Amino acid sequence: LLYLENTFTEGINTDALNTVVGEVYGNLGIKNKKFTVYFTLPYPTVIDEPFGDINGDGHQNYCRTLEERLAIIKWFTDLTYTTFTSGNYTNLKLGGFYWYRESLDYYETDHEAELVKQTSEYLKKKKLAFLFDPFFLSVGFDHWESLGFSAAVMQPHLVFRDYYQREMLGEFLRFLQGVGEELLRHLGDRGEAQPALAATVHH
Fold first, then answer.
1. For the purposes of burial, counting CB atoms within 10 Å of the CB of 69, is it exposed (0-12), middle (13-18) or buried (19 or more)?
2. Residue 54 in contact with residue 71, Cβ under 8 Å?
3. What's the rounded Cα separation, in Å, for the pair 29 and 51?
4. Helix H segments across the chain?
5. 35-54: per-residue pLDDT in tens?
6. Would strands 61-63 and 92-99 be described as parallel, antiparallel, or unpaired?
7. Pairing label, strands 61-63, 47-52
8. pLDDT tens digits, residue range 18-36?
9. Distance, C-alpha 115 to centroid of its chain
10. Residue 39 to residues 14, 36, 84, 112: CA-CA distances in angstroms?
11. pTM here?
């Protein structure tokens, strides 16, 4: 819960974004418009130890089976939604969640695909989007739609390499056209590990 506590702490993160959006919209004369935000959906790693009491019934919940992991995901998304709504962020609206993992790690369990699909179904019933952010050619990048994701944005990771050439980005964009994805571009000095800016660019 430290992640949610930090996300919704007064004066930083979501609260700070709400303030900045209000200021920017005010300066631009934009009225009756809200900025859409998406929150990380942490990956429910399979563990043998008790996860915690998510129902408040005094019994420990576990994170081992498909049913147990899905219950944790539902609990987390519901808690995030409730916390966001109670924050009364006048300039923001919740658009949905994005999958924390940048690949579909089928080696983890025999139900990874089903976990993603059922998570997608749950979020769609709540009219929330479910996004996937794969790294270059990671597992799942070419069948994100069949897994139930609303959209996918693939990262070329070129900013982390010292061999980047502008032509490589064009080649990457042409490749994306074949799988219907978008590009997540990290902008910064060549070879820097810390990106200065992240932006979504339509292909």
1. buried
2. yes
3. 47
4. 2-7, 13-28, 66-86, 112-125, 166-176
5. 999 999 999 999 999 999 99
6. unpaired
7. antiparallel
8. 999 999 999 999 999 999 9
9. 15
10. 10, 10, 10, 21
11. 0.81
